[in-house]
């Protein structure tokens, strides 16, 4: 949810196709502990959504959701994911700026399609893997759409979605707490359901 101070400008690509915020944007806004907290907020959102959608594969789902929740900030070199792959992150930042193409529903679909064949590697079907990846990336876009800077999530539509929650503010910390509780409840419920199912199966024997 890192807010950039300079939104940059848009540029026309091809025949009238407009990429949002397509301009260099080297603003460094993530600082110290806030950078960690912001990344955690996104990871929690992705993990919580995944745990609710796929309770039977909760471990794989939570990990996938948490990682997917960080993907959109690959266009920010100082983000948790961007700092691990600085060359790619810096390049994307220079081309698209921050909160450009990577903060759209289309980008979430692209990432889901790219991960289609990876499901079996972590015990998920291809369809489930793609769906959870899509939801994880989308959760990031949704959270950033709650900040004053907002996102152009519905690109190529020109509308910009924005809200009142400022990055690193008390409301965001409260949101992170709510997400933590949601994740804990989902995992706990899935664990209890699994234990009950195993107990019933044992009694039937």
Q: What's the SSE blueprint?
A:
Layout: E1 11-13, E2 17-19, H1 32-53, H2 58-71, H3 86-96, H4 105-114, H5 126-144, H6 170-204
Antiparallel strand pairs: 1-2
Overview of this protein structure:
The structure is a single chain. By secondary structure, the protein is mostly helical. It has helices at residues 32-53, 58-71, 86-96, 105-114, 126-144, 170-204, and strands at 11-13, 17-19. A hairpin with a 3-residue loop joins strand 1 and strand 2 (17-19). The longest helix is centred in the last third of the chain and has 35 residues, at 170-204.
- Average pLDDT, rounded to a whole number, is 78
Note the run of SSEs as H and E.
Answer: EEHHHHHH
Number of discrete helical segments: 6
Q: What would the principal axes of the Cα set say about the shape?
A: globular
User: Biggest sheet, in brief?
Assistant: 2 strands, antiparallel
Determine the fraction of residues in helical runs and give it as a percent range.
40-55%
What is the radius of gyration computed over CA atoms, rounded to a whole number of angstroms?
18 Å
Oligomeric state: single chain
Strand order of the largest sheet: 1-2
**Computed structural class:** mainly alpha
Strand content: under 5%
Number of strands: 2
Low-confidence runs: 2-36
Question: For the terminal residues, how far apart are their CA atoms?
Answer: 52 Å
């Amino acid at each position: 949810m890192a807010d950039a101070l300079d939104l940059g400008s848009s540029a026309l690509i091809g025949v009238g196709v407009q990429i949002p915020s397509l301009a260099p944007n080297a603003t460094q806004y993530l600082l110290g502990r806030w950078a960690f907290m912001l990344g955690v907020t996104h990871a929690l959102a992705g993990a919580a959504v995944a745990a609710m959608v796929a309770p039977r594969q909760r471990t794989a789902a939570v990990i996938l959701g948490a990682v997917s929740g960080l993907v959109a900030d690959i266009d920010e070199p100082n983000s948790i994911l961007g700092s691990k792959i600085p060359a790619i992150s810096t390049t994307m930042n220079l081309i698209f700026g921050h909160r450009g193409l990577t903060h759209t529903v289309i980008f979430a679909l692209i990432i889901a399609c790219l991960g289609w064949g990876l499901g079996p590697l972590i015990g998920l079907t291809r369809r489930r893997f793609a769906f959870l990846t899509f939801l994880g990336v989308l959760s990031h876009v949704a959270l950033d759409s709650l900040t004053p800077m907002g996102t152009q999530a519905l690109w190529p539509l020109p509308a910009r979605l924005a809200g009142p929650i400022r990055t690193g503010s008390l409301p965001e910390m409260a949101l992170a707490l709510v997400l933590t509780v949601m994740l804990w409840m989902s995992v706990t419920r899935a664990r209890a359901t699994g234990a009950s199912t195993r107990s019933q199966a044992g009694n039937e024997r």
